[in-house]
Amino acid sequence: MITAITSVTGSESRTSDLMAAEVEYLSSTLSILRDSDVITNDEFLEAGAIQGGLNVLSAMISNGANDSEVNVQILSLKRRAEALCEKHPGIDSKIESRR
Q1: CA 54, CA 70: separation in Å to the nearest integer?
Q2: How many CA atoms does the CB half-sphere of 59 hold within 13 Å?
Q3: For 37, 79, 93, 95, which has the most beta carbons within 10 A of its beta carbon?
């Protein structure tokens, strides 16, 4: 999860289109992983909340939010993703293995 967040929040890659594509990837991947019992329902729900935050970030950028507001959201998402990865070791590699 942290890999996904980091890949789309760098200053070079910070576009709403790229984030929207990542949201779609996470949505389908998380569903597949949960349905195939690779991740638990708790992991699915917690990762889904971060995916939702990424969707909010995409909307903020497409609506012209200022950089300081965007940066606050990015920092929050990164912290949440790091906490998820600490709580559920291996979830990041499970998500990335579907690329």
Answers
A1: 11
A2: 6
A3: 95
Task: Tell me if residue 69 falls in helix, strand or coil.
Answer: helix
The residues, any chain, with a CB within 8 Å of residue 27's CB and separated by 6 or more, are 51
Q: What is the pTM of this model?
A: 0.88
Tokens coding 76: 């929050």
Q: Tell me if 79 sits within 8 A of 11, measured CB to CB.
A: no
Cα-based distances in Å from 92 to 20, 48, 59, 69: 19, 13, 24, 26
Cβ atoms 17, 61 nearer than 8 A: no
Tell me the domain boundaries of the chain: 2-96
pLDDT tens by residue, 16-58? 888 899 999 999 999 999 999 999 999 999 999 999 999 999 9
**What per-residue string of b and e applies to 9-22 under the rule 16 or more CB within 10 Å gives b?**
beeeebeeeebbeb
